[in-house]
Specification:
There is one protein chain. The protein is of the alpha/beta class. It has two domains: about 220 residues, NAD(P)-binding Rossmann-like Domain (Rossmann fold), CATH 3.40.50; about 70 residues, Oxidized Rhodanese, domain 1 (3-Layer(aba) Sandwich). It has ten helices and twelve strands. The strands form two sheets. An eight-stranded mixed beta sheet has the order 3-2-1-4-5-6-7-8, with helices on both faces. A four-stranded parallel beta sheet has the order 10-9-11-12, covered by helices on one side. Strand 1, helix 3 and strand 2 form a beta-alpha-beta unit. Helix 3 packs parallel to helix 9 and helix 5 packs across helix 6.
Length: about 325
């Protein structure tokens, strides 16, 4: 019996749909709790090529929500361990593993090479960078997030509004899995929904998941959904840049107060609160605000915009 016989029985798949999956190239950014079910289900369905990007390594604290990995994988780059597991699961699927953090330097080329992009990184910087790149390239993006007992998944870009359109205002602060915790099945559900949306896009099913958001609350056992096809794009946004795009004359401010020193010697090392009183020299034409996830930088930029009219860009620093 064919490996794909059970799904090819479906009228939505059939021989033609299976051929579409086998010819597809999907970019998966993030090989953690969201990425694990995404990679397994897409490879299981026979997607022809997966490109995996993640700069992280397997830690014991990951294993409760990332069961693709084993104790023997601790310390290894996640994408390398994942690539081995996926090739073992389905040798029909080609896997390209890249040990790297996604940034605006590499995002456009990686997005351009793929038919579909999945955001499994779960950081503001990666999500918005992917959304900007996918919107520019006209590529569909399936994005998700999970924390505690809640999560969401959405299909954006392509012919749908971008992530910035549905989240025009970011929160002042946001907990992480490390600070607020998360249950493995919640993350797995969001990743599985991402995989389902991805297959629907690749198969051209109707109604399309692009322009659709689903929200799951495991504490109250509720699921909600809505469409955002008409959500307006923000008039002005704050783009992320790569560290290599910093120019001579930029005022660079590292907001990571948890870091012992700024990420480059010419950067100021300030808290976000200190931005309200900072003096900006008249010759400064651009300010670069850096933090780990992008959230502090984004909110700091909103503060600066009230008193300085120049260009502001954001940078995610992943080395601390």
């Amino acid at each position: 019996m064919s490996r794909y016989a059970r799904q090819m029985i479906l009228p939505q798949v059939g021989t033609e749909g299976q051929a579409r999956l086998q010819s597809a190239h999907v970019l998966v950014v993030g090989a953690g709790g969201l990425g694990v079910p995404v990679m397994q289900y897409l490879a299981g369905a026979g997607v022809g090529m997966l490109t995996l990007i993640d700069g992280d390594h397997v830690e014991e604290g990951n294993l409760h929500r990332q069961p693709l990995y084993r104790m023997a994988d601790i310390g290894r780059p996640k994408v390398q361990a994942a690539a081995e597991a996926i090739r073992s699961l389905n040798p029909d699927t080609q896997v390209c593993a890249q040990v790297a953090w996604l940034d605006p330097d590499i995002a456009p080329d990686r997005v351009a090479a793929a038919d579909l992009v999945l955001d499994c990184a779960d950081t503001f910087a990666a999500s918005l960078t992917l959304s900007d790149a996918c919107r520019a390239a006209g590529k569909p993006l399936i994005t998700a997030s999970a924390l505690g007992l809640q999560g969401y998944v959405a299909g954006v870009c392509g012919n749908a509004p971008s992530l910035r359109a549905i989240f025009p205002d970011l929160p002042i602060s946001a907990p992480t899995c490390a600070t607020a915790g998360v249950l493995g099945p919640v993350v797995a559900m969001m990743g599985a929904l991402q995989a389902q949306m991805a297959l629907s896009v690749l198969l051209g099913l109707s109604p399309t998941p692009l322009g659709q958001m689903m929200i799951f609350d495991a504490e109250r056992w509720r699921m909600a959904e809505f469409r955002f096809d008409d959500a307006p794009e923000p008039v002005a946004d704050l783009p992320f840049i790569a560290a290599s795009a910093i120019c001579t004359g930029d005022l660079v401010i590292d907001l990571r107060t948890e870091a012992p020193a700024p990420f480059r010697p010419d950067a100021l090392h300030l808290s976000a609160d200190a931005l309200t009183g900072i003096r900006i020299a008249p010759e400064i034409r651009r300010i670069v605000l850096a933090c780990r996830t992008g959230l502090r930088a984004h909110n700091g930029a909103q503060t600066l915009r009230t008193r300085w009219p120049g260009e502001i860009v954001l940078l995610s620093v992943t080395d601390a």
